[in-house]
Specification:
Blueprint: H1 2-16, E1 34-37, E2 40-49, H2 51-60, E3 64-65, H3 71-80, E4 87-93, E5 105-107, E6 128-132, E7 138-142, E8 149-156, E9 159-163, E10 170-171, E11 176-186, E12 209-211, H4 213-220, E13 225-226, E14 245-254, E15 256-259, E16 263-265, E17 269-276, E18 286-290, E19 296-299, E20 306-312, E21 317-326, E22 331-341, E23 347-354, E24 357-360, E25 364-365, E26 372-378, E27 382-390, E28 393-402, E29 407-411, H5 413-419, E30 422-431, E31 439-447, H6 455-471, H7 477-493, H8 501-521, H9 527-540, H10 549-571, E32 581-584, E33 588-595, E34 603-605, E35 614-617, E36 631-638, E37 655-661, E38 677-682, E39 690-695, E40 700-706, E41 712-719, E42 726-732, E43 743-747, H11 754-757, E44 759-762, H12 764-767, E45 772-780, E46 792-800, E47 804-806, E48 811-813, E49 817-819, E50 827-832, H13 854-858, H14 866-896, E51 899-900, E52 910-918, E53 930-936, E54 939-940, E55 944-946, E56 959-966, E57 973-980, E58 989-998, E59 1004-1013, E60 1023-1027, H15 1031-1034, H16 1037-1052, H17 1057-1060, H18 1069-1089, E61 1101-1104, E62 1107-1110, ...
Parallel strand pairs: 16-22, 25-31, 51-56
Antiparallel strand pairs: 1-2, 2-8, 3-8, 4-5, 4-6, 6-7, 9-14, 10-13, 11-12, 11-14, 15-17, 17-20, 18-19, 18-21, 21-22, 23-24, 23-26, 26-29, 27-28, 27-30, 30-31, 32-33, 33-36, 34-35, 35-38, 36-37, 38-50, 39-46, 40-45, 41-44, 41-46, 42-43, 42-45, 47-48, 49-50, 52-56, 52-58, 53-54, 53-55, 53-57, ...
């Protein structure tokens, strides 16, 4: 089978070049809406008419309803009919009878219907017929001929029917004349020109006809257009009732003919005859003859001449002889081709070839069965034909163009066989058309015997030949095809002589492998090359038993590829909706068709006259082909299975294939259809069917056989009567019963036909896989009491199946296909839901790349470096970013360290860890010095300055940790107090959150601050107390949302956290950068893997609101996620959860111990060496007293004044006070404890013990100091001893309290142990922190995964990029970058926000570690820092700023902000104005004015103010044509401006009798023609000369100057004239491309009175392009009249630049446009803020409204700019497609004009706004205030001026409107009176007309308006200005200006002095200081005395 298929392929390839030959032949010219077929034009009319109305419509154009003579005509009509519509065609009752009479149907001309396609035979009484669109275009006869349907008209070439009521004309093409053949008048056919109202009783016998050929010939012969209807009135009526008609047969003959021989010899005489057949020429006849080789002969010009010219050609070639004759109305051309050949002189043989062997001429040899190639040449000659003969037997032949080139003549292998072995004499002949006699030569050829040929020698010969061809660079599919054909012929012929089968098989497969490789590398380019390859393959596989299955599969693939190439070649130049191209042979058939998507509805594809596969395509979803203008249908039909090498599927019948592709050949997948595609496959002839005949009088049974488990059994049942209800039961291996059966069905089933209702399909599922005999039982369904029926049933059993070839699995499959009920014994109907060889797949197959081809792909780097360079740049960028990230990690390590406050008291041991977070707002960081105070229920801490000399604190977004120590626990914290001193260059501070942790109890307090501490923001305060947050406050939505969002962005979001990661996180910045890099490369890899995979348009779209996606897109996303995310999530998890190395914990512990030892040693040495004095001891005792006072929050002890400098030596009083307080406190606590013993908690006891312990330690320290100091420092030893005893006695009291509390031992060592106990706990914590999470070495696993994924992803991404090619790589790269930034900037932030909302609303979990505070250990000794001495507290730092200073700071800051805002406003607006002016002037070209002026001046020559129609005609013939078609062809005037398209004339007319005539003058005036108006405009259609057309139906779409065309058809716009606004439509005549055509067109128009009294406007429209200045000019020259007979000239020129220049200025302007848009966005933002702040008050400010207007105008200009650009692209594209028509750029020019207006007003309003900026100038401010003060008076005077202006305008218009042009309209009168006020007035014009009245009128106007009212208006303004000078008050902005100027001058080091700097005396006579003149340092930082006290 494969052999026959390949043999057929040879013929298919030959026929493919001539595909579509069925449409070739005589080509006729048809109208635009008509389709040519054979010798007729067919028009498919969508208008719905009755049968007779349709026939009348066709007869109006000289045709009739279509005749369908054969199947080819039927197929042609099917290809153009709408499958959803029926249509009338030309079949009717054959007799002239009433429609109720019976009779056969015939064509309208009476001929019988020889071919038919009736859906059912015509019923009796049927009178007409129509085509059914929804039934495969079958015919149906009907009685109802009155229903309205579309129809088909047929216009036969050379035959026309002229009815009495229609003005039908005979017409020939250009250069042809009518020649009448036959003509008769009367009635010969009953159905032609039939009047609908004719009585039914009329008969044909009452009519006659007469031959009128002579009369018609005399009237029409020699004309190009003949109105034959004009003759009908002279013939008389031959059929009074039915009306006569005229039938004319004619042909068109060329008016100019040439006679010349087709072939001639070089330098021989050639006679050329010229004949002109005309006798109606007008004017001078001019004829010329061109011989084709450069000679031109001018012929004489008698009418009806015939001349000849003799010429000699000097060289061989093919020449075109052309003749052209031109008269006033005739332009005839004719041409002939002549071939000049060179005679042959001598023939010779060079070499001969047999197979791959070469022989010289003297020793030529042939191989048995192999082709013999003879290389031959001739010495001279062209168009040579070679023949090789042995005696009289022809062996081979060849024709070539040039004989001097060596040629190979091939003697086929069969011919060599016929010659036989031995030596032979062959004769070679060479001849052409000019060589007589032919030349010849002899050649001796010897053929060896069969014994001399061996398989080894043949194999060696083949391989040597292939190697030689490869060496010479001639190895191709064509050369291998020739070689293989010779070798395979010998293998096939000499099989018995060439060794065993396996050896021959090996040789065949080796040859086949070489052929396939070569064809893949160098694909064939021509059909001849493909034919040679196919011939070689055909010979190679002729004995397929000598080929393996793999080789057969390769052959099958090659066959299908070749057939696909044939289909592609057939579709290459095919037009849409042309008839299909069909190539049919014995075993293979192919069909190719190109259709529009709407034609695919109910499309039926078949191979005519062939028992081949057929397809019926249902209505497909509209979305399947919505993006395609045309699609290609490719159909293949095989008699046998082309996949016979596959042993599965059991496919033995015919195979069909249908695919849909776009015009580029890319297959469009069509699958998962709702309606199945019907496939009709002919069944093999040897498949037998079994039929049974059952009598249903009893229960009837029969046996059926199921041969295969995959087969479907079709039971066709034909009952003897219908309807016949019965049940059918099926049993397996036994008879079925009512309860026991395999399957059961009740007949009849639903269906459209009887066959469908009585067909039962048993698919494999129903049969349950059973194979073998099945029993069938039929049981009739009868009524009650009926035991039997008299009926029978015929059952036909058909076994079949439907499968399709799955290319993905390389096997046959039945997925989506089933057998249809219309399957018969001869045809199997398959219903499939797809049109593709591919089955459905769960996973989408990605693009594949072969890594083994890496070297080859990288070798193409120079051609496609895009992706490789991009990936390389990513790697370089990654390494640079890693360096930055490492430095950031080092900085973060320093940030994580806890800052121990330097002002902590070394004696304080109670520690609090403060975590203070600065917000992320702009300017949130501060340079001020911040102070904090903790407020608790047990007391308050001292103020502490939050600073760290080793790092910068309070940066934006940072979290700073501070260790604050107090003497004892403060209890539950109630609040925290923060303030700063407003110092530095950015003093404002936004504090977000504060967390305080008690390191002893691990309790935390959260403070939700979210406030500014600033003098100019928020509450404008520097000192604020923040209360501790409760659980409800922590769980509020805004707090949870803010915490979650901050944490997710800073830590969770991989990309954003690179910049702003938490410093304490184990996930370092370097690791995050590496993870981002790996994720990016993996994303790029998955993206490029699935990039460009074809989508399935038929796949269902899943709709989720506004989001739509397909299953394929969903699966691509799932697969990409499965490939990309697991490994990246694993890498991130490893880095996050890997703990540090355990050794680091030990190292930190050793380091900590050594630090403690150093601190202890330093403490000991300090205590030893310290100089202790009595003052130090008194201060220590005073600190103890103050601590006791803070404990009870009362001043029980004396204040500082009590223990001042004057009483420092009375130490005993201080100790006595302390002792008394402790005693009293002890008694009070004992009483409380005894009364509420059960209520005392352990926590309260512990806090009390901590306080007592602190006092105890302080007294021990004082006791130690007293002991070290000794009695010498006291006044007496007694005082020293008394003091020591008091201290010891106080210690005893504290020891008693500690003993009662049972907390710890009173021993001091015990205290140390208790204080050190925290170290042990911390140590445990440390040890625990070193456990948990992944081992430390897992970080290497993470780095290994990062490196592996990055390298692999980058490598394969580069391979894919190199494979894609440069263009696709760029496309992928752009889409990837856009997708990446879209995901990074939009999708991922939205996901973070959505998750934050979810957690804030649903879970409401408070993340206490939201500030990422690391659990770092802090020892108790760290409270003192490095310096164990207490830091001296600066009073200015530890007190909040006073309110007065804060107010000064605030005022100064506000003034500075206003100054900077003012400066910024000025600078930004100047930049805005600069950009606006650049944009405005960039849109204008100064050359536009000069271009317009030049064109206007050129075309306005010979123009007067009043022109008649004659003057208009004279102007068009002279000035218009001379300037429109200048010296240089295609250019106007002097050749600088190119004419774009054709120019056209357009006129607008009014209807006849468009106005009423007064009754008393009707006798004087017969007609009245109104002025132009849209209501009176004429929009009719006329014949030449404005003769009224009798019908509105025209058969041509050619533009006609006598037919009105609408504005949309002309692509025009209304235009303003001086008189009216004219509509864009009109009557149009195009002037053509040159002056001659334009002149003849104008002559024709004016000869036929195209312009007459009804013409109201004449417009000359054209477009020019001046390349010198790159400008288009749309020109409209307007001549208009007001119905008085005089035309006025006016011009409208619109200049526009459609091609943007590429110079530097263009780039500069484009950049300015972009910057301008950024300015607009900025101002929109500012205005939105103002609207939000001011609400409705915003719209009361005139400057706000001005800003809003500028913004709206700007965006309107942007929209119009985009519209203009799109319109320009559209109009230019239209011009390129229609260069021979008028090029309309009106819409583009209108958009450009609107854009210019918008920009002009933008400049106006933006310039006016500068007045607002000048308000700061005192003088300008005063002027503005003056106008505002005088506005009420000014408005009144303006109203008076307006009234007087209108009064004088009305008066002057009434007096002079009919006399003077300046007052002809009211608008002109108003303009003239206004000009009078400014001194521009023509006094002489008025005084010469009416001197007295004119002088009074205009003199009074000047006096009252100019001298009185205008001067009063000026006086009012001057008075207001004087008042404003007296009462003017300086504005606040003047201070702002002073501040701004001072700042500017300070920058440049210039001293600035203003009035504010002068000292002003206060009330006391002292000079105060102005806040504005003080330096910032004076008010930003406040100073207090060092000894001043701060009240917390």
């Amino acid at each position: 089978m494969m052999c026959w298929v390949l043999l057929d392929l040879l013929i298919l390839l030959t026929l493919s070049c001539g595909s579509g030959a069925e449409n070739e032949g005589f080509v006729i010219s048809c109208a635009e809406k008509q389709k040519a077929f054979r010798d007729s034009c067919f028009e498919f009319v969508g208008v719905r008419l009755s049968f007779f109305g349709a026939q009348a419509w066709c007869e109006e154009g000289g045709g009739h309803l279509a005749f369908i003579a054969d199947e080819d005509t039927q197929r042609f009509l099917q290809a153009h009919l709408d499958p959803d519509e029926d249509a009338w065609f030309g079949v009717a009752h054959s007799k002239q009878q009433s429609v109720a009479d019976e009779g056969p149907l015939a064509w309208l001309d009476g001929s019988p219907v020889s071919y038919s396609k009736w859906v059912s035979g015509p019923r009796p009484g049927a009178a007409c017929g129509h085509i059914l669109g929804n039934s495969g275009f079958q015919w149906e006869a009907t009685e109802d001929c009155g229903k309205k349907l579309p129809f088909i008209c047929q216009f036969e070439s050379g035959r026309s029917i002229v009815c009495a009521d229609y003005d039908t004309a005979l017409q020939c093409g250009s250069g042809q004349l009518i020649m009448i053949d036959h003509a008769f008048y009367g009635r010969l056919r009953p159905h032609y020109c039939r009047s609908i109202f004719t009585a039914a009783a009329s008969t044909q016998h009452e009519c006659g006809w007469v031959d009128v050929v002579e009369s018609v010939a005399a009237h029409c012969d020699g004309r190009q257009l003949c109105a034959a209807a004009e003759l009908m009135s002279s013939f008389g009526e031959r059929c009074p009732d039915l009306r006569s008609y005229l039938s004319v047969d004619y042909h068109c003959q060329d008016s100019l003919t040439l006679s010349v021989n087709t072939v001639a010899a070089v330098l021989h005489d050639v006679r050329i005859g010229v004949t002109l057949l005309t006798h109606r020429s007008e004017g001078n006849l001019r004829c010329e003859l061109r011989t084709g080789d450069g000679r031109v002969v001018y012929l004489s010009s008698p009418q009806g001449f015939e001349q000849s010219v003799v010429h000699r050609y000097a060289q061989p070639s093919t020449f075109t002889v052309a003749a052209e004759c031109i008269t006033g109305i005739i332009h005839s051309t004719a041409w002939k081709m002549i071939t000049i050949q060179e005679p042959i002189t001598k023939i010779g043989v060079i070499r001969c070839f047999a197979g791959s062997l070469s022989f010289s001429e003297s020793s030529c040899k042939a191989l048995y069965g192999a082709a013999l190639h003879i290389q031959i040449e001739v010495k001279a000659g062209t168009n040579v034909t070679y023949r090789v003969q042995k005696k009289e037997k022809l062996l081979s032949g060849l024709s070539v163009v040039k004989g001097s080139d060596p040629q190979n003549i091939t003697v086929s292998g069969e011919a060599v066989k016929q010659i036989g072995p031995g030596c032979h004499r062959l004769t070679l002949y060479a001849s052409n058309m000019v060589t007589f006699p032919e030349v010849s030569a002899d050649l001796q050829v010897s053929e060896p015997t069969l014994a001399s040929i061996s398989l080894d020698s043949l194999n060696e010969t083949v391989m040597n030949a292939v190697a030689e061809l490869e060496t010479q660079g001639l190895l191709s599919g064509e050369t291998l095809g020739e070689l293989y054909f010779t070798v395979a012929t010998q293998l096939n012929t000499l099989a018995g002589y060439l060794g065993p089968v396996l050896s021959r098989q090996a040789l065949r497969e080796d040859m086949l492998a070489i052929m396939i490789d070569v064809v893949k590398e160098t694909a064939p380019n021509t059909s001849q090359e493909v034919q040679v390859i196919a011939r070689g393959l055909s010979a190679l596989v002729k004995k397929n038993a000598e080929l393996s299955l793999t080789a057969q599969k390769n052959i099958s693939d090659a066959l299908l590829d070749a057939l696909d190439n044939i289909l592609s070649a057939s579709l290459l130049f095919k037009e849409t909706n042309e008839p299909p191209t069909t190539i049919h042979m014995e075993h293979v058939s192919v069909v190719a068709e190109r259709v529009s998507p709407r034609k695919l509805k109910k499309k039926f594809m078949e191979v005519s006259n062939c028992s081949c596969s057929a397809f019926y395509i249902p209505s497909l979803p509209s979305a399947t082909f919505s993006s395609y203008k045309s699609v290609d249908l490719r159909m293949m039909s095989f008699d046998k299975n082309p996949f016979s090498w596959h042993d599965g599927g059991d496919v033995t019948g015919p195979v069909g294939a249908l695919s849909v592709s776009d015009t580029d050949g890319v297959t469009i997948p069509v699958r998962d259809l709702c309606k199945a595609v019907e496939i009709f496959l002919p069944r093999p002839a040897d498949n037998q069917t079994n039929s049974s005949f059952l009598d249903l009088g009893n229960f009837s049974t029969t046996v059926i056989n199921v041969p295969s488990a995959n087969s479907t059994v079709v039971l066709k049942m034909i009952p003897s009567e219908e309807p016949l209800p019965f049940k059918v039961f099926l049993g397996y291996l036994e008879y079925p019963t009512v309860t026991n059966y395999v399957a059961m069905v009740e007949m009849p089933q639903p269906g459209a036909t009887t066959e469908e209702r009585y067909t039962w399909l048993l698919d494999p599922v129903t049969l349950k896989g059973n194979v073998g005999e099945h029993h069938l039982v039929v049981r009739p369904i009868v009524g009650p009491g009926i035991k039997s029926i008299n009926a029978n049933l015929s059952i036909t059993t058909i076994t079949t199946s439907c499968k399709f070839w799955n290319h993905s699995l390389q096997t046959w499959s039945d997925n989506g296909c089933r057998v249809g009920v219309n399957s018969t014994a001869t045809v199997t109907q398959c219903l499939c839901n797809h049109l593709t060889f591919f089955g459905s797949s769960f996973f989408v197959t990605p693009n594949l790349v072969d890594p083994s081809r890496s070297a080859q792909l990288f070798a193409s780097f120079a051609e496609n470096p895009v992706v490789v360079c991009f990936v390389g740049a990513l790697f370089v960028t990654f390494f640079l970013v890693v360096v930055w990230a490492r430095r950031k990690d080092i900085q973060d390590i320093a940030k994580v360290k806890i800052s121990v406050l330097e002002d902590n008291d070394p004696m304080d041991r109670y520690r609090y860890l403060l975590s203070i977070g600065t917000g992320h707002r702009i300017g949130a960081s501060t340079s001020s010095q911040v102070t904090v105070t903790l407020l608790g229920d047990a007391g308050s801490s001292e103020p502490h300055h939050l600073s760290d000399p080793r790092k910068i604190v309070f940066e934006r977004g940072a979290v700073d940790l501070f260790l604050l120590c107090t003497s004892f626990s403060l209890g539950d914290l109630q609040g925290i107090r923060l303030w700063h001193n407003n110092s530095g260059d950015h003093p404002a501070w936004f504090v977000s959150t504060v967390t305080v942790q008690d390191l002893q109890t691990k309790q935390k307090w959260h403070f939700l601050c979210n406030s500014w501490l600033s003098v100019d923001m928020d509450d404008c305060i520097l000192d604020k107390v923040f209360p501790a947050a409760t659980d409800e406050e922590m769980k509020r939505f805004n707090n949870l949302f803010l915490m979650r969002t901050t944490k997710d962005f800073n830590d969770g979001h991989l990309w954003f956290s690179v910049i702003n990661r938490p410093p304490g996180s184990n996930f370092t910045c370097v690791q995050r950068v590496s993870c981002c890099f790996s994720l990016l490369l993996c994303t790029m890899l998955t993206s490029i893997m699935f990039y460009g995979i074809p989508t399935d348009p038929s796949e269902q779209t899943l709709d989720l609101g506004h989001f739509e996606f397909t299953w394929q897109q969903f699966m691509v996303g799932v697969q990409s996620s499965l490939i990309m995310f697991p490994v990246n999530i694993l890498i991130v998890s490893i880095f996050r959860n890997t703990r540090p190395r355990e050794t680091s914990c030990c190292q930190r512990k050793n380091k900590r111990n050594s630090l403690e030892e150093n601190v202890n040693s330093q403490t000991a040495s300090t205590n030893t060496n310290a100089n202790i004095t009595l003052d130090i001891i008194i201060k220590d005792i005073t600190r103890v007293a103050n601590s006791l006072s803070n404990t009870v929050k009362s001043n029980i002890l004396s204040t500082e004044s009590e223990f001042g400098q004057g009483q420092q030596k009375d130490i005993h009083a201080i100790l006595s006070a302390v002792e008394d307080f402790i005693k009293q406190n002890t008694k009070t606590c004992d009483n409380i404890q005894s009364k509420a013993q059960p209520l005392v908690s352990a926590e309260g006891v512990e806090k009390k013990s901590n306080k007592t312990l602190y006092l105890y330690k302080q007294l021990c320290h004082i006791e130690e100091e007293l002991s070290l100091m000794g009695p010498s420092s006291f006044p007496s030893a007694q005082n020293h001893g008394q003091t020591l005893q008091q201290v010891q006695r106080t210690k005893g009291l504290l020891e008693d309290q500690l003993f009662r509390a049972n907390c710890i031992d009173i021993d001091e060592n015990s205290y140390k142990k208790s204080t050190d106990g925290s170290h042990d706990n911390k140590g445990k914590t440390k040890r625990r922190c070193c456990h948990g999470g992944l081992p430390w070495w897992f970080v290497f696993v993470g780095w290994l995964l990062v490196i592996a994924t990055s390298v692999i992803s980058g490598y394969f991404t580069m391979l894919y990029g190199l494979k894609f090619g440069k263009q696709q790589s760029i496309s992928w790269l752009v889409s990837t970058i856009i997708s990446f930034f879209q995901s990074l900037l939009f999708i991922q932030p939205i996901k973070v926000l959505c998750l934050a909302v979810f957690f804030a609303l649903v879970t409401k979990n408070v993340d206490e570690d939201f500030q990422s505070v690391p659990p770092l250990p802090v020892a108790s000794d760290d409270c003192a820092g490095k310096d164990l001495q207490p830091r001296r507290r600066d009073g200015s730092l530890y007190k909040p700023p006073p309110p007065s200073d804060v107010e000064k700071m605030r005022r100064n800051r506000i003034m500075e902000q206003k100054a900077f805002a003012l400066l910024w406003e000025i600078l930004t607006y100047m930049g805005f104005m600069w950009m606006l002016l650049l944009v405005a002037y960039g849109q204008r070209d100064p050359n536009a004015f000069f271009l317009n002026q030049h064109i206007r001046k050129s075309f306005s020559e010979n123009i007067s103010d009043s022109m008649s129609l004659g003057d208009v005609f004279s102007w068009t013939r002279t000035s218009l044509l001379s300037n429109l078609f200048g010296v240089y062809p295609g250019f106007i005037t002097d050749g600088n401006s190119k004419l774009v398209g054709n120019a056209r004339l357009r006129q607008l007319r009014v209807r006849r009798s468009s106005c009423q005539i007064a009754g008393f003058v009707q006798e004087l005036v017969s007609e009245c023609h109104s002025p132009y108006s849209w209501d009176m405009e004429d929009m009719g259609s006329y014949k030449p000369g404005w003769n009224r057309s009798l019908t509105d139906n025209t058969s041509t779409n050619t533009p006609d100057p006598w037919t009105y065309q609408t504005q949309a058809q002309l692509r025009s716009y209304p235009i303003w004239g001086q008189l009216e606004l004219y509509r864009g439509g009109g009557f149009v005549a195009e002037l053509g491309p040159d002056s001659e055509t334009a002149s003849s067109t104008l002559e024709y128009l004016f000869r036929n009175s195209w312009l007459d009294v009804y013409t109201r406007a004449i417009l000359v429209e054209f477009t020019v392009y001046n390349a010198n200045v790159n400008l288009f000019c749309i020109v409209t020259l307007l001549l208009e009249t007001a119905a008085v007979g005089a035309f006025q000239f006016n011009t409208e020129l619109r200049t526009v630049r459609l091609y943007q220049s590429t110079g530097g200025m263009y780039i500069f302007v484009m950049a300015a446009e972009i910057i301008y848009l950024l300015f607009i966005l900025y101002y929109m933002f500012l205005q939105a803020k103002l609207v939000k702040q001011q609400r409705w008050a915003y719209f009361k400010n005139k400057w706000n409204l001005l800003d809003l207007t500028i913004i709206l105008l700007s965006w309107s200009a942007v929209a119009v700019f985009i519209a203009r650009t799109l319109l320009a692209i559209r109009d230019i594209a239209y011009y390129h497609d229609h260069k021979d028509q008028f090029a309309s750029f009106y819409e583009t020019a209108s958009a450009d004009a609107v854009l210019q207006y918008l920009i002009a007003f933008l400049v106006l309003f933006a310039t006016v706004k500068m007045w607002h900026l000048l308000r700061l100038h005192p003088k300008m401010n005063m002027i503005s205030a003056t106008l505002q003060r005088a506005w009420s008076d000014i408005s009144g005077f303006l109203i008076v001026l307006l009234i007087m202006l209108m009064a004088y305008s009305f008066t002057s218009y009434m007096i002079y409107g009919w006399k003077l042009s300046s007052y002809r309209t009211l608008a002109n009168a108003i303009l003239t009176i206004f000009s009078l006020q400014i001194g521009k007035f023509d006094y002489e014009e008025v005084l010469n007309n009416t001197s007295l009245m004119g002088g009074l009128l205009f003199g009074s106007c000047v006096v009252f308006m100019t001298f009185v009212v205008v001067n009063l208006l000026i006086s009012v303004i001057l008075v207001a200005f004087s008042e404003e000078q007296i009462q003017h008050k300086p504005s606040e902005e003047e201070e702002v200006v002073d501040v701004m100027l001072r700042k500017i001058f300070n920058i440049f080091g210039i001293r600035y002095k203003s009035a504010a700097d002068a000292p002003r005396p206060d009330a006391n006579g002292s000079s105060g200081r102005n806040i504005l003149s003080s330096s910032p340092e004076d008010v930003n930082i406040f100073h207090l005395k060092p000894d001043s006290k701060i009240n917390p």
